[in-house]
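If you are new to this repository, start here. Below is one unmodified record pulled from the training split, so you can see the exact layout before writing a loader.
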Amino acid sequence: MSRRYLTQEEAETRLRLGRPVEQWLGRKDSTAGAVLRWLRIEKDKSGHYTTTLFEVLDAPNLGIFDIYEFQALDVDNPFGTTHIAESEALAIDHAVNVLGAERSRFVNAGVVQDEYRDTRSSESQ
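And here is the target side for that same chain:
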């Protein structure tokens, strides 16, 4: 079985190379229903690092796991809330200190939906 999580050094290296990293932040309740939360950090064209918080409405009855396709909680801001940092380390610090991320739980882009699938699987057992 392969290792899922990146070390902080691996996450920073991937970001410097222009490869995004993500982290599953879990689920929270809202008046609109269950909300799925995750973040993405990526290097933009200007060399800055953007940390984007995504919040989407859970849709377990659809039987799909592609959370990238779920409806945004805030329809006026469907592409998430973004923070810009000067370095990959500062972007990670923002994710940890402001958004509640854990330094040891970053994954490669695209793997966050596996985290969601695992959450759904554990809830149904």
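Two things worth knowing about this chain: The mean pLDDT is 91. The chain has one domain: 8-120.
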